[in-house]
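for ur thesis appendix - ABC transporter permease. copy paste whatever u need, i formatted it the way the template wanted (i think)
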Amino acid sequence: MSTDLKTATKLAVPGKSGRRKLTYPWILLIIAGALVAVSVLRAVTGTADLTSTGQFGAALSAAVPIGLAGLGGLWSERAGVVNIGLEGMMMLGSFAAGWIGWQHGPWAAALAGVIGGALGGLIHAIATVTFGVDHIVSGVAVNILALGATQYLATLWFGQEGSAAMLAGGNDKQSPPMPDMPSFTVPGLSDWLNSVEGHHWFLVSDLAGILGAAVTNVSWLTLLTIGLFVGTFYVLWRSSFGLRLRSCGEAPVSAESLGVNVYSYKYAAVLVSGALAGLGGAFLSIGVHFYQDGQTGGRGYIGLATMIFGNWRPGGVAMGAGLFGFMDAMQLRSGGPTVHALLLGLAALLAVIALLKLRAAKRTQAALSALAAAVLIGWYFLADTVPLELVEASPYIATLLVLALSAQRLRPPKANGRPYRRGQGT
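the 3d part is after this line
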């Protein structure tokens, strides 16, 4: 049956064989090129924090909840269920983590976040899979329901006058503080990399700063997240279970004809999706030691953007989460100077895009890219900083730019978001 499923899945992906695939050498070459570009930008602008251990450590922490939300969306949409409710599932996860965490510690908080997010996924699955509710409508409803439920329960459980939670430091907007989550540092290597970074050598110090973030004060939840990305790839692309699940998102009628219980696989995918988003919400609560109203800050929606940018692949989601995490950390740590330096980097990127479009005989797009590059170069040299409002909005602006630039190469699962009823192909 696996061979038949592979055939059905390939037939549902028109033109797949003609698309050039990125090989590992090309991926490594792109990463090396990006590192050299960032090193040049740091040297030209004199913005040392651009490649510092602190910057990339903060970016790694900011990327984890976004990446988990994007990975959750990937599971759901690979099975054919659009999950706009990732933000609400993150809210449920962060609230559950704050509720359990102050009583039983951070590891129990992480487990509670997984359960809370899975509960949101279950609601979405019942609505979309069992009752056939429009996926977008159901996802928005989950977001609204989660927002109202967490605000009500926070007032009820954390903000009651004289309650144990209030006496422990809680109020109607946040939970009492929880203990710190353990982290690890590689002794010796961390100090050596920090020393190399301090010399500000071209490329070498930049690489040391990036590697230093991976061995200095890293949360165990971050390592768990990396394992979940690797595990997702092997489960969805290297196992018969993953093949059946992906067939539900590409050709559910064909999968059903080959004996796949499409409903069961869709339920499993959406539950895993909610659990991953809930863990992302728990990471936010554990990171600051308490749940707080409005804590997710739209990261569920940015996670959805990373899934689209990543073309519904774990590696692409990881790269997108890293990019958005970097922008988020940058505006929190460095603010105006670093964002100002990135104007020059963005101008260079647009100039390269303009040349590529011109080579492809797309003169209008090439002219627009070149004009935008010229405007950014002028802005960089005429101003010493950027407005605070633009700094705060930089992660969201990056989201829009990346999606706009990558829109033409996207190929979502063919049956994603389409209504499916058992036996409809007969």
